[in-house]
Amino acid sequence: MKSAATLKFRILVSHVLAVLFSLAAAAFLVDSSLVPGPVMRAHFVAVLFLSVLFALAVGWVTGMLVSRQFGEIVAGSKKFAAGDFSYRIPVGSSGELKKLSETLNFMAGEIGGKIREAELRRLELEAAFRDMSEAILIADGAGIITRINPGARRLMGVKGFDPEGMRLSAMPGGAELSSAAIKALSSGKPVSFELEPASAQGTVLSVNASPIIENGTVGGCVLVARDITGPRKLEEMRRDFVANVSHELKTPLTAIKGCAETLLGGALEDREHGPGFARSIYEQAGRLDNLVNDLLKISYAESGRDAAERTSVDLKALAADAAAGLTAMMAKKKVSFLNLVPAGCAVSADRDKLSQVLINLLDNAVKYNREGGEVKISSSVESGFVKISVEDTGPGIAPEHLARIFERFYRVDKARSRELGGTGLGLSIVKHLVELHGGLTGVESVEGRGSAFWFTLPVPK
């Protein structure tokens, strides 16, 4: 308000000087006898005195009004300088100060809007930086970390300390990322590559380092690391799947082609050996048919379009039906079957899909059992789920194979599996169908004593 008081003082001094000038002029006129007669002089002096008082009063009021408006402008400007752009300067009635107040208010509104917009953009970028799954960190020209998001903290194992202000090369697992930053800083160009960090074996990262260029010079870089382990594993699985399917198709096709060529070469007329070649073609065609059917089943199960039409299913009766279809195979190997599922035991499941699961497990239990062995199925209720177990007395499975036993085309004994007509997809189909019901699958095995494959299904509500 000091400036307003100063302005008011200046205005008042100006009026006083004007009045003094008028008085001096009036005195000159009186002394020079330009105003005739003493009475006229007295009247002139009185009018002049009143005029001086009026001029002083008008000057005082004008100074007060102008200084107040100017003071409000100064106070408003200080609020704008402090960042309060929501404040508005009271606008005077007229004059240049009114225009100045309106201009300053308009400017404050525009600046406030721009600042709000910039703050919104900042919050959006901050949220993206914080919540992105990719690891993002920013380093200056000397390789010092200035910003790091939670994804990068997790990737680099940051616990118990603040990495901002540290050298990138000093971070856990930061040596590889530091090399990317150095390349980007030195070349001034983006750098991209893939790496497996020593601190996370088996993890594959896609790393991108982009330089930050300001006024033609590189002042830092932004590092973005994305975990592509999943996509890489899927790609590897796809290649393995194509290779396995090709191999599984080629084996029976080669046998069919060989038998067909033999028959065309004259064996067709050979009553002793001809039927054997025809039988082999029929068996290999059946093997191809089984493989294609299993591929269609697992493809549909993995597509996400498959759905379980749940009903209450009598487990003991369904197990008996599944075993009945394997009577000839069990008789051939002299394998006995025990249905130990309690009477009245029911599960919430799709009857057809559960039947497929039981058939696949019982078929494997008989197929890989020893001659004269035993297969039994049992169940128990655990925490709202029914655990169904299919046990055999076969050779068992070595521990190193158990973790991968439900993978597609995985076989413990490849030669024996193909000899017995297996496609390598049965257990994978079992796993997908059980998971479709919200259940789990597993296996327990002791070499030389047999295996027990189990799965869980919910109890009917």
Low-confidence stretches: none
Strands ordered across the widest β-sheet: 2-1-5-4-3
What percent strand? 15-25%
Query: What percent of the residues sit in helical stretches (DSSP H or I)?
Result: 40-55%
Query: Over the alpha carbons, how many angstroms does the gyration radius reach?
Result: 47 Å
Question: How far apart are the first and last residues' alpha carbons, in Å?
Answer: 80 Å
CATH class of the largest domain: Alpha Beta
Query: CATH H-level name of the largest domain... which superfamily?
Result: Histidine kinase-like ATPase, C-terminal domain
Helix count, DSSP H or I runs of 4 or more residues: 13
Total beta strands: 12
Give the name of the CATH architecture of the largest domain: 2-Layer Sandwich
Helix and strand content put the structural class at alpha+beta
CATH fold title of the largest domain:
Heat Shock Protein 90
Q: For the report, how would you describe the main beta sheet? A: 5 strands, antiparallel
Annotation keywords:
elongated; Beta-Lactamase; five-stranded mixed β-sheet; alpha+beta; 13 helices; 461 residues; Helix Hairpins
Walk me through the topology.
Blueprint: H1 2-31, H2 38-81, H3 96-131, E1 135-140, E2 145-148, H4 150-155, H5 175-187, E3 191-195, E4 205-214, E5 217-227, H6 229-264, H7 274-302, E6 311-314, H8 315-324, H9 327-333, E7 336-339, E8 346-349, H10 351-367, E9 374-382, E10 385-392, H11 399-402, H12 414-419, H13 426-436, E11 441-446, E12 450-458
Parallel strand pairs: 7-9
Antiparallel strand pairs: 1-2, 1-5, 3-4, 4-5, 6-8, 9-10, 10-12, 11-12
